[in-house]
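Dear Dr. H.,

I hope your travels went smoothly. While you were away I took the liberty of generating a structure for the chain from your last submission, since the lab meeting agenda had it listed for discussion. I wanted you to have the full record in hand beforehand rather than looking at slides cold. The sequence, exactly as received, is reproduced here:
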Amino acid sequence: QGIGMSLFLFPHDIPSGGAAGIALLANYWLNLSLGFSLWIANFALLAAAIYSFGYMWTIRTMFSVTITSFTVHILNLYIYLPHSSLLFDIVLGGLFFGVGVGILIRNGASSGGMVILALILSTMKNITPGQAMFWINFTIFLITATVIEWTIVIYAIACQWLSTKTIDFIYNLKVPPWLSDQVAWRKK
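The corresponding predicted structure, in token form, is as follows:
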């Protein structure tokens, strides 16, 4: 997930999800700092996660958010990829992001942000996590289009569509029992 965000999406200023969009809206409408707005959005969602999924799931999610943040930080410091094709970067970014989030969901954690809300909705409405995440982020991206450039929002929606399809693929992937023990792959 961190690889997709850091190497392919962030260099083009493409947001990776809706929590960043909520932070941007809070900054725009309430004049709150982006960092504080992002913290409040994630804190509120983590509080809902404790209630809906328990302490261990929330701790695993906090761990995954920390690892993703560390990965993004390190990759931004030490690796630079020349970006020749925006479409290529959107595809690779969406695939890496989707595989990372799909593995987290499959193993009883999440990447934080809107994934928490998507998982709550997917259990309540009996839809896949990827579908829920796509529509949540799609709505937030449309609202943030009033604040940021429209083309970035279109790229973000395209990336979200690809990443959520990848999340659903990983989530529903049938792994043979003999292989699931080898790769610590949880059964759905």
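Two observations you may find useful: Residues 55-78 form the longest helix (24 residues). The chain has a mean pLDDT of 83.

With kind regards,
E. W.
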